[in-house]
Amino acid sequence: MMGCSNPHPHCQVWASSFLPNIAQREEQCQRAYQSQHGEPLLMEYGRQELLRKERLVLTSEHWLVLVPFWAVWPFQTLLLPRRHVRRLPELTPAERDDLAFIMKKLLTKYDNLFETSFPYTMGWHGAPMGSEAEANWDHWQLHAHYYPPLLRSSTVRKFMVGYEMLAQAQRDLTPEQMSSSCTGLSRVLVAVATALVSAASSCPQAWGPPGVQYGQSGRSMTLCCPGVTAGAPVSWSRDGETRLLQGPDSGLGHELVLALADSTDEGTYICRTLDGALGGMVTLQLGYPPARPIVSCRAADYENFSCTWSPSQVSGLPTRYLTSYRKKTVPGADGQRVSPSTGPWPCPQDPPGATRCVVHGAEFWSQYRINVTEVNPLGASTRLLDVSLQSILRPDPPQGLRVESVPGYPRRLRASWMYPASWPRQPHFLLKFRLQYRPVQHPAWSMVEPAGLEEVITDAVAGLPHAVRVSARDFLDAGTWSAWSPEAWGTPSTGPGLCPYPAWIILLRSCLPSGPLPKEIPAGGKPYTQPKEKPQMDSPAPPRPSLLPDPRPLDHRDPLEQMAVLASLGIFSCLGLAAGALALGLWLRLKPDGKDGHQKPGFLAPMIPVDKLPGETKKSVC
Questions:
Q1: Distances (CA, A) of 280 to 229, 319, 344, 477
Q2: Catalytic, out of 8, 10, 428, 598
């Protein structure tokens, strides 16, 4: 996308006997400002941007990165030193190290902006050298330009065409918008870059309490004396021990090298200068680099979703989790025009520091990419997870479940519940429900799918407490079922003198699988209507039934059922005896008299005498 047709990172150094057009314009402007105000132009500009903080992207001890107000390329930045420097060779060692640090942070920001290897053109502008090196260049300030071409995504770039080539360049984003896009993830990217640079340096930068350095178990570890100049000779010893670990003549300066450090090397180390003065104290803590965290996401409604995570391995070091998300675009030109910006945006942790972040105002038909990065002093590891609300939708369990008996019906229980408070209410967002119930001490659950917010159980066991629970799911089967609600308990009423079902229904009920029964009719012959009762707020809750096993077998029938079954069995016995007697009589009627005896005419033989048949003579018809 940038440079030659064979994509690869490369660097070029150009030298000429004249100032090119862009460099010449910069030189003229800087010289004019210096002669009028007495200080370099870019030094004053950097101070103004630091005061306004409108277009700042990154700052460090020696450098700052900002979006210049004249920027025309998307995400164009300007890199400036904080002090007056004319050329790269004039940088101090500390400034060179800090330059590598801030460039790493900036490039990490670029790569994470669209989660791709971000293309860019970058170049340094220093004061002229060669035959002009001895001239007065105090008006010149060293600086670098970054020109990335990407505009809205990893595949959509900006082209300078038409009016921009023939007249004047146009801005697709304002400098403030470009700066906010980069700084929106500053906490994420800066911390990641800090960890990477810290892990790569010989003396890792401190995390947490001052004076603590972190290292990896089984690797060589270098400790740096914090209170002396780099390279100054010092002696090292363990806290509480007089034995020297390393003398000042080791040639290692202010560093102490521990080969293949393990848990026995953890502790506090003291470094002293040549005159015996205390140089500083360093506490060593060992652990492991971060691994990719385990991430899962869930949506409790149509508009918001949350993601939780946990470490895949314990590092033993201070750890932070940095979270962001972005909306994925559908491939193709039309999909890329959906929005000028699809993120990424920070995913706020709720509460701060928790292993959970929440995305508000999500779109149900869109897909999102979640970025959870685990960071510790030894590095960073990222987990990317693609989610859609349709697949992760899982409502909270229904609330307010109540189970009540139905007076006059010893086999019925009425259950009612409410939508979960987190679910957007009807008519646009509907839920369907499933209900499970079982008698106390019975291991198996029966289940029905109610049509609304209540259900009447018609095959409860008379006199036994029943446990009831409910779960919910999107009406159109998006996502999965919710967890079960807390169990509620109820016991059918035990009114006397009622016959819940006719005898033939009870007989069938005892032979068929469990299921809803026909409506019961009380002794009076009129259907019962549940009266509305006011809730008794001061009445104590009924005691929870015992769940201990009962040695008695579970009997699903009441005494009336048992009597009906016995009567039915008696009727069937009589019918069976009558059928047996009839069969015996037929067998005796058809049985032959003896071995040589005359065979009786068949049971179905014609009843007309043979001698009466027309045209036939009397014959023996035996």
A1: 11, 26, 43, 65
A2: 10
